[in-house]
TrEMBL record, chain A:
Protein origin, superkingdom: Bacteria
Organism of provenance: Micromonospora craterilacus
Name of this protein: Iron ABC transporter permease
Compartments in which it is found: Cell membrane
Pfam families, per database record: FecCD
Transmembrane segments: 73-94, 114-147, 153-175, 202-223, 243-270, 282-301, 313-332
Keyword terms, alphabetized: Cell membrane, Membrane, Transmembrane, Transmembrane helix, Transport
GO BP annotations, alphabetical order: siderophore-iron import into cell
Protein family membership: Belongs to the binding-protein-dependent transport system permease family. FecCD subfamily.
Membrane topology: Multi-pass membrane protein
GO molecular function: transmembrane transporter activity
Hydrolase among keywords: no
First-listed, main subcellular location of the protein, grouped into a coarse class: membrane
Automatic annotation (TrEMBL), chain B:
Transmembrane helix found in the keyword field: no
Protein name per the record: Fe(3+)-dicitrate ABC transporter ATP-binding protein
Domain of life of the native organism: Bacteria
Pfam families membership: ABC_tran
UniProtKB keywords: ATP-binding, Cell membrane, Ion transport, Iron, Iron transport, Membrane, Nucleotide-binding, Transport
Cleavable signal peptide: none
Annotated organism of origin: Micromonospora craterilacus
Domain ABC transporter: 6-242
Gene Ontology cellular-component annotations: plasma membrane
Membrane topology: Peripheral membrane protein
GO biological process entries: iron ion transport
Location relative to the cell: Cell membrane
Amino acid sequence: MIVIRTPGRLSLRLHPRAVAVGLACALLALAVGVLAVGHGDYPMTPADVLRTLTGGGSPAEEFIVTQLRLPRLVTGLAVGAALGLAGAVFQSLVRNPLGSPDILGFTQGAATGALVVVVLGGSSAALAGAAALGGIATGLLIHLIAWRRGVHGFRLVLVGIGMTAILTGVNGYLLTRAPLMDAARAVLWLTGSLDGRGWSDAAPLLAALVVAVPVLLACGPALRMTELGDDAATGLGVSLPRLRMILLAAAVLLVSLAAAAAGPVSFVALTAPHLARRLTRAPGANLLPAAIVGALLTVTADQVALRAFPGQLPVGVVTGVIGGGYLVWLLATERRAGRL
Amino acid sequence: MPTSRLGGSGLRLAYDRRVVADDLTVTVPDRSFTVIIGPNACGKSTLLRALSRLLKPAEGAVLLDGTDIHRRPARAVARTLGLLPQSPIAPDGIGVAELVARGRYPHQGLLRQWSRSDERIVAESMAATGVADLADRLVDELSGGQRQRVWLAMALAQQTPLLLLDEPTTYLDIAHQIEVLDLCARLHEEQGRTLVAVLHDLNHAARYATHLIAMRDGRVVAAGEPRQIVTAALVEEVFGLPCRVIEDPETGTPLVVPAARTRAGTVTR
């Protein structure tokens, strides 16, 4: 533990390993990003990419980087960060290592919104908007049902699982109602893809991150207190109902807008917080490391998909395979360690 | 009449529709070691939950320094009133010093995360509860008695004039029970804090309390100094237990000795 104190009354406490892990993952994500921007029909070396990004490229390079490739990268980073952050919040909120938006029903809610637009017909913008609305509406509904004198972790999980089951059924029904071409497009969306993302796809999510990240980080210390149990946290002066409301609202917003930008990219929200915690070895939610690891995971998965199966494989498939494999490994090792 | 910073009047305490206590009035005298006793389901833990604002009374109000405890900011209350719940959770892999440091939360801010006084108070709290040597150990590795002292250190680090303890001796063997109670008595005497504890053992309560609240069926049957209120008649009324009350040879406080079966009348000579 490092303590930084100023001559005034300011003091900051940092976990050196967490800071190192965060910085390392951020640098790695940027490196993957530079490689990603260089990859494509018009290959560019990392030096070219950096030169273009700093304003020294030819007009053609400028166009390729800022208009074609950078939006996809930024969307991937933002989606990964939003999912990692939301996953860490959910796991802390429901005190369960499996508490992720995939399992709690928000992802299915976003899918329902998107599928309604597919069936009724509508633009990509309408689809993204409907996905965001679907996720937020599911969040509100789960909140209303699970809310009895404050959101209780366990109840939230059970209501979420029930909601997931219902929405999965609804989504299946909607798919059968959609015209064949649209259904194919819908299934691609449902896997989660970063193909052809432009700045307009990334903008709403970036705006949400700008608001949600500081709010969630400010909630960090209170969130740490809730690990001691509801009673002890209240005794220490945490206002639990207010804290849970803020956390739930911010996390649902992030998940919904991430789904709007890239579809429901699976398992990042579940995996990133676990990986972050293992890397930092710091107890607790590890909010910022989870966001950084999420961003790194998503852009790396997208690059793996692009390079191994050019134009064929949506990023959601790779994150699903990695995340699913990781989950099985986690369950097996935790079980052996007697923790799960 | 002693002064009181914490108390409640006309309290109706209920979980959903199940009313545990109605029209309950209690006061915690300042600088007392108040112990609440009573049989199972008498409402003693519920009362402590209400006093520590974990349970909002359906009617009446718990007053802390004259204002409704639920109308005050949570952090401000936490700087006056500390709480050690019955079964707090130690997060996986947390160290002793780190856990004790969490007691400083209500005194910290986003830009004041770890001041020099935080550091000093945490060290003092660990010294006062005899866990300074354990500072670098993991909480998971400790025995039940050590762990309870660590939790007490955390509650102390909160530096509140009032401290509420919900059955602090549960799950401990007799030696560790006495160790924890001796520690509480010392904190009460040396640091002048007001302690309120729920205890199961009547003899522990009679020995350590300076103010005893005896409850049954959601009512306060008697309240006062143990030497004045603990009688065979009171124990019979509160616990339904025939007994004799003798003087504790160690401390001179009342000692409750349950009647033998023959005296209870089930078996006659």
